């Protein structure tokens, strides 16, 4: 039984990245996630990890799922609790992409945080 079935809402965090490789429709995604999750005990939010570690630790410590585009924000997944899930949204493959870098980092951590990749077909720098 998961946290939601035990009366504790699941928390889904969308990394609110600025500049390149951002989720173009992040606010619509968070709203849709909350509409879907309302009846299921799921709470979704966007968080800007650029605000710094101190502002992000409480968000990370309570996040059950984090969704972020490929980039530096994924390192924050190392602060998530055991059993959490990290979803990495990959852009269309460009030259020199270190596409397996975060998969390798999280596999060395053991099964603490589960890492999964999703591939975008959107060729812009916003996915």
UniProtKB/TrEMBL annotation:
InterPro entries: Glyco_transf_61_cat, Glycosyltransferase_61
Top-level lineage group: Eukaryota
Residue stretches making up the Glycosyltransferase 61 catalytic domain: 11-86
One MF term in the entry's GO annotations: glycosyltransferase activity
Keywords carried by this UniProt record: Glycoprotein, Glycosyltransferase, Transferase
Pfam families named among the record's database cross-references: Glyco_transf_61
PANTHER family in alphabetical order: GLYCOSYLTRANSFERASE
Name assigned to this protein: Glycosyltransferase 61 catalytic domain-containing protein
Source species: Coccolithus braarudii
């Amino acid at each position: 039984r998961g946290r939601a079935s035990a009366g504790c809402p699941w928390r889904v965090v969308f990394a609110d990245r600025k500049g390149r490789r951002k989720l173009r429709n992040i606010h619509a995604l968070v709203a849709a996630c909350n509409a879907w999750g309302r009846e299921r005990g799921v709470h979704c939010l966007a968080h800007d990890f650029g605000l710094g570690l101190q502002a992000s630790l409480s968000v990370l410590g309570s996040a059950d799922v984090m969704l972020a585009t490929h980039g530096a924000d994924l390192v924050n997944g190392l602060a998530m609790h055991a059993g959490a899930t990290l979803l990495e949204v990959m852009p269309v493959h460009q030259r020199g992409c270190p596409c397996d870098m975060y998969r390798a980092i999280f596999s060395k951590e053991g099964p603490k945080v589960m890492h999964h990749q999703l591939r975008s077909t959107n060729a812009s720098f916003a996915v």
